[in-house]
Amino acid sequence: MHMFGVSRPLFTMVAILMLAFAQQTVSAEPRASEFKLSNGMEVVVIPDHRAPVVTHMVWYKVGAADEPRGVSGIAHFLEHLMFKSTDKIAVGDFSKIISRLGGQDNAFTGQDVTAYHQRIAKEQLKTLMEMEADRMVNLRLTDDEVTPERQVIIEERRSRIDNNPGALLDEQMNAALYLSHPYGVPVIGWAHEMAKLSRQDAMRFYKRYYAPNNAILVVAGDVTVEEVKKLAEETYGKLPANPEVETRERPQEPPQIAERRLTLKDPRAGNASFHRYYIAPSYVTAKPGEAEALDLLMKIVADGSTSRLYRKLVVDEKVAATTGGSYSGYGLDSGSISIYAVGADGDLKPVEDEVNAVLDDVRKNGVTELELERAKKALIADYIYESDNQASLARRYGWAVAIGRKISDVEAWPEALAKVTVDDVKKAADSYLDSRHSVTGWLLPEPEGAKGSGDRLEQSVSHTRS
Amino acid sequence: MKSGKPRGYDMDAVRFLRLKNIRSAFSRLGSGVSLLVFFAAFIVTLSQPASAMKIQTVKSPGGIEAWLVEEHAVPMMAMRFAFDGGSSQDPEGQEGVSNFLTAMLDEGAGDLNAREFQERMQDLSMRMNYEDAKDAFYGNFETLTENRDEAGKLLKLALNKPRFDKDAVERIRQQLLASLAYAARDPNKVAQNEWYAVAFAGHPYARPSNGTEATVSKISGADLDAYRKRVFAKDTLKVVAVGDITPEQLGQLLDEVFGDLPASAKLAPVATTDPVSGGRQTVVDMNVPQSVAVFGMGAMPRKDPDFIPAFVLNQILGGGGFASKLMEEVREKRGLAYSVYTYVYPFQHASVFSGGVATRNDMMGESLDIIREELKKAGDLTQEDLDNAKSYLIGSYPLRFDTNAKIASQLLGLRMDGFGPEYIENRNALIAAVTLDDLKRVAKRMLDTDNLIVTIVGKPELEQAKASKANAKGG
Fold first, then answer.
1. Cβ-based contacts of B51 with chain A (< 8 Å)
2. Looking at this predicted complex, what is its ipTM?
3. What pTM, to 2 d.p., does this model score?
4. Which architecture characterizes domain B280-474 according to CATH?
5. Residue A79 is a catalytic residue
6. What is the pLDDT of residues A182-199, one digit of tens each?
């Protein structure tokens, strides 16, 4: 078996050429292939023959934003329950079987997608596909399995959210960012609704959305398109399409006309920090070139120590310890911009003033040619370095197709990025860094109760010899 | 543990913003397991069906040695390197200096100030970052072939002539202090630090790797440079390279980048030690809804014949994700925790078997009882348990070699542990040779629960744990 050696896809070479001649347009050679099974299941294959392993993913075009009101967390809960049992697989055996085969498996849930993924030696691919196809339609659940698993997701919420004031603020800010769209409800769910999630809720959601005609298979690694096609037809291809599968129609946002502000006081917060989110279009909803311009804008304004925010707030004015931010453009119905700055001391007023000054300046005066050039180079370099990893590639393609983009869109991204002009960036900044579409959050390290704000968090330590 | 990436704060406080970038994706296995995976990457430099991966040993004209895997299909390369040292070389009163240095090496060098240096890096599309562990200072360098010479020069500047300009030092100090302030409220971090403080009291491993507010406030540019001059030296340097570069070209690059470093490091001696025995339990009071516990005890050194059996035993108990006993008992059967895991980690001067669990405050006692029980039962594992673990460890080995970056990490890990390239060929045979008797012997040798050191952060209810402890002693 070759660990190495076989050809690395042309497209990477193309991207590298583009890095060298950033403004030149070179058409990307396709790297991935796409086809459909007769039951409507989409398939994406990304050959990479360096190591005799494969990454296998099944993406469902459903996520937390598709949950009925009041049943928040059910998409993620179902994802956990998918590891329970079917007629063929005993309770909890799914992961154990994969482990015995030398594979690793996991799953994740987002607002728009739910994905199940494994990495394994290529010889085991068929077994994996049989197992994944089986649980697409044959899931069995009993209350005895559902009850402890509900405790698990509640502990997961405590670990990720409740134990972390930054995550609590993020949750509150998201809820304020969306006036009507379900993106305002956290993926993991609100605690009081999670406590009531039932087996029936999970099965209802499963029957409605889990079907081959609502799923995408992505296989990356040491395979050919023909091999995958044959295996996919023998496994997933045998499942009937579900004509009742629901299409995604979610409540959309009304015009946003007022900025929102939140303050969370929590003694666990560490330094005071400033946060701002804006609604923005996503790669799905934006006009051509607009999302690429937003990626470049946020690279210039907020990414790392060469960014405008860092230079102004950390290096020059010294009001912040660090800053950051990014554009998140992979939502089906909306994207968002996020910015943060960790205060150098407790006073966030000068921090917010300086952030606003940086943003106002870029809205009014745009960015320079040199900044734009550097940002393009940096984003394309990230894209290339990431292509070293087949699991990242599978995720890149899978996510895109799951929100309705084409693989040609993914592969033409470096090209689309190269076309963005300074005017495009200025226009994007002016349109989307609009405070009326924003939420500002302050996280302050203060006690919740009536205590004075000067209190330090006290920790007592007790040692026991046992 | 190992943390303190450059701009350490990003890694910690603002982690949630990164999560948000992927639209708040939640995965079935979270933080605990990523810790585990991280350890696995560094520990188990074990092998691969090595048939096709050719590791060459390259010696530069100037005498610097490196391992190389040539891969010319893509015009880029990754180089990883390490110096012995890390936080165990932080002088007393300067805890955190090593971590501080990891964040200072792209903050200006030679004629370039911080801004110019960082812009130059960006123009070259090169990547350079550093991490410190308890025993080593790690560097990571990636470049496109066409920029290799220029990027190499910049790397050389960073290692040989960092400026430590006053404003840059102050800037990074603020970030590190902010990061410490956050970490002081993060139950996971507090529990980890406390565990090492208790387990290794009096030894450099007990000291906080990232320092304290007091030490980080005082560290100067001169302190940073003094540490650099002691630690960055050719005699402890280990380098691996993967990608588009020939042995001759690599030889030149090695001399260019590392040739001017001093011949030998001036390291303070670090004593070989073991975690304290006899058992300890520490509770750090913190007002959080969920308690976090770290538990553990001593393990076998990397070159002990029982290390591999201990590694397999760990896989069965808590290293194997959903296939592990602890996951089955604590999570799957009882829903007590989202994550529970263990790992075996051989530091240079001590080895630990350790793990963690997070559960709501009133269930911490019960969770720890179950964990203790499972550790006690480790002597009764079956042939099937062993076969399943071996089957995973052997079958999944190639998954560690499927990207250039991972190959580089694996090879550097091997070098750090003092093995030759041939180890990769032999590794699966070592796993396959482990018997049930080996497991039983190792369980007896390693897993005496009377030696268990536990640190808990939160507001745990521990009555049950105490009661069962009393019973155990009474019996």
1. 1, 3
2. 0.86
3. 0.89
4. 2-Layer Sandwich (3.30)
5. yes
6. 999 999 999 999 999 999
